[in-house]
Each structure stands twice: as structure tokens, then as C-alpha cells.
């Protein structure tokens, strides 16, 4: 897949799925702007992406996606540096799990602020730039946004909201040439799943027809496809990349 001449923003790009997406975009020829909260990790991520795709332009920006002013500043800096934006991948996300009987307002607010409002903030701050290039947006939701999950009221609500926003923006922006799609990863081997107890991991693996976790690169392949011109008539879609978990 070819992303030559495209400038792609990847939020939460300093590690995990976001870093894999940044790498795959760069390998496909795109210039990449890595946005992440963790200023300490951004430089290493930029170096890693450059090493994978020598000659491709990569820059990092410290940004909190839940803070509109921070997002607007990063959007401005990205446009000034790269001159345009052809793709936005809303990937940054966190978990703060608890059952309904135990979930605090702080847990609810944190996940909604980052996983739901953060996607709105990044989309609104970049929509003019995407309209200018007839670009593409890919929003990382989750299978939890389709089916809910034990202990994840906040996360499920946010990820379902991401799917609803994706379809809404498809309707609003489609006629102007911007495509919006969502990817729902299943159970992917990253930092976010590291605290899941071994018996629960075992139980989840038993529900996956492929009987294994996904790798970040396997999510990244789907995202690069949706960003590319190969997906020129795919719009408003929800693509599960979950090894069949939802069956
Ligand atoms: P991760 O924790 O490895 O990476 C998340 C990244 O987001 C980190 O680099 C972190 O610094 C960044 N981030 C967190 N808060 C931020 C903020 N306020 N502003 C900017 N950046 C911020 O997680 P991951 O597993 O790579 O998850 C990436 C996305 O995939 C998330 O949206 C997650 O919900 C989704 N997802 C993951 C899985 C999985 O099994 N790993 C499954 C379904 C969906």
C-alpha cells in the first residue's frame, strides 16, 4: 500500500498500536506526525519510525488529546511544519476499569475525556486541513464499543461513541471528499492489556477462533489500507480486526 506524498497524524503514536501505525505509514511512504501525551517517549518513537523508513519525514508533538487548546496548538504546529494533513488516525486511548458498583466519577471522566472527547478534539482541530486535501480519518474504536465488556462501562461508552461519531462525520464530510472509517481491534498485545490476570487472558484466548492475541502491526495494516487510495470507496465502515473474537 502506498501513502507517498501523504502527511498522516497518529495520536497516541509513542507506543503500542499507535507506534505500529506510525511505522507502517512511514514504510508506505507517508510523512508522519506523532502526537502523544508522553513527551519522554516521543523522541524514541520518532527515532524508531525513522529507522524503519529512512528518508521519510517524521516529527513528534507533545499533546494531551483531552485538552482542546493543546490539540489546537499541535494541529497548528503540524500544519506549519508539514504544510498539509492528508490523514488523521485517532488512536490515543486509556482504560480505567471497574464494575458499575465501584466505578468512580474520576474513572468515568478520565476515559470519556481521552477516548471520546479526545477524538472529537482532534477531529475538530484538523477537519479544515482534511477538507483541504480530501483526506481520510481512521478512528480506533474497539470490539468493546460493539458489545460492551465486563468492568468497562466508561470504555464501552466511549468506544461506542467513537463509532457513532465516525458515521456522523462520514455523512457530514463524505460529500466534500473526506472519508471516515473505524477500526475495532480485539485483544492486542500492548501495554494496555498487561495488567489483565492470566486466567482472564486464557479465557479470552479461548473465545478467539485464531487462539492468539493480535499484534499491533496487524491493526496497523488495516489502518494503512483505510488511509490509502486503495480504500477510496470505503466510507463509514467499521472494520473488526479481532481474529474472529466477536463470533
Ligand atoms: P497503549 O497504552 O500501549 O498506547 C496508548 C498511547 O496513547 C500511549 O502512547 C499513551 O501515552 C497515549 N495517550 C494516552 N493518553 C493520551 C492523551 N491524553 N493524549 C495523547 N496521548 C495519550 O495502548 P494500545 O493498546 O496501543 O491502544 C491504542 C488504541 O487501541 C486505544 O484507543 C485503545 O483503546 C485501542 N484498543 C486497544 C486494544 C488492545 O487490546 N490493546 C483493543 C481494542 C482497542
TrEMBL record:
Pfam families found in the cross-reference section: adh_short_C2
GO molecular function, a single term: oxidoreductase activity, acting on the CH-OH group of donors, NAD or NADP as acceptor
Keywords for the protein's UniProt record, in alphabetical order: Oxidoreductase
Domain Ketoreductase: 6-191
GO biological process terms on file: fatty acid elongation
Species of origin: Rugamonas brunnea
InterPro entries: KR_dom, NAD(P)-bd_dom_sf, SDR_fam
NCBIfam families per the UniProt record, alphabetical: PRK07231.1, PRK12826.1-2
Record family assignment: Belongs to the short-chain dehydrogenases/reductases (SDR) family.
The protein's name in its UniProt record: SDR family oxidoreductase
Record keyword Oxidoreductase present: yes
Amino acid at each position: 500500500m502506498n501513502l507517498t506524498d501523504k502527511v498522516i497524524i497518529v495520536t497516541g503514536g509513542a507506543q503500542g498500536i499507535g507506534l505500529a501505525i506510525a511505522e507502517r505509514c512511514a514504510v508506505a511512504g507517508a510523512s508522519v506526525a506523532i502526537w502523544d501525551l508522553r513527551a519522554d517517549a516521543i523522541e524514541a518513537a520518532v527515532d524508531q519510525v525513522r529507522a524503519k523508513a529512512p528518508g521519510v519525514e517524521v516529527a513528534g508533538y507533545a499533546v494531551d488529546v483531552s485538552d482542546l487548546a493543546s490539540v489546537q496548538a499541535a494541529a497548528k504546529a503540524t500544519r506549519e511544519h508539514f504544510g498539509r494533513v492528508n490523514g488523521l488516525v485517532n488512536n490515543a486511548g486509556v482504560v480505567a476499569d471497574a464494575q458499575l458498583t465501584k466505578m468512580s466519577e474520576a474513572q468515568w471522566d478520565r476515559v470519556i475525556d481521552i477516548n471520546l472527547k479526545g477524538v472529537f478534539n482532534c477531529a475538530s482541530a484538523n477537519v479544515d486541513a482534511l477538507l483541504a486535501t480530501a483526506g481520510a480519518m481512521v478512528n480506533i474504536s474497539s470490539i468493546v464499543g460493539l458489545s460492551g465488556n465486563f468492568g468497562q462501562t466508561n470504555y464501552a461508552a466511549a468506544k461506542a461513541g467513537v463509532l457513532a461519531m465516525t458515521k456522523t462525520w462520514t455523512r457530514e464530510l463524505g460529500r466534500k471528499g473526506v472519508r471516515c472509517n473505524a477500526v475495532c481491534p480485539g485483544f492486542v498485545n500492548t501495554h494496555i492489556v498487561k495488567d489483565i490476570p492470566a486466567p482472564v487472558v486464557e479465557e479470552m484466548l479461548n473465545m478467539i477462533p485464531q487462539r492468539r492475541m493480535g499484534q499491533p502491526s496487524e491493526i496497523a495494516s488495516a489502518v494503512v489500507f483505510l488511509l490509502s487510495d486503495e480504500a477510496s470507496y470505503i466510507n463509514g465502515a467499521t472494520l473488526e480486526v479481532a481474529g474472529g473474537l466477536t463470533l
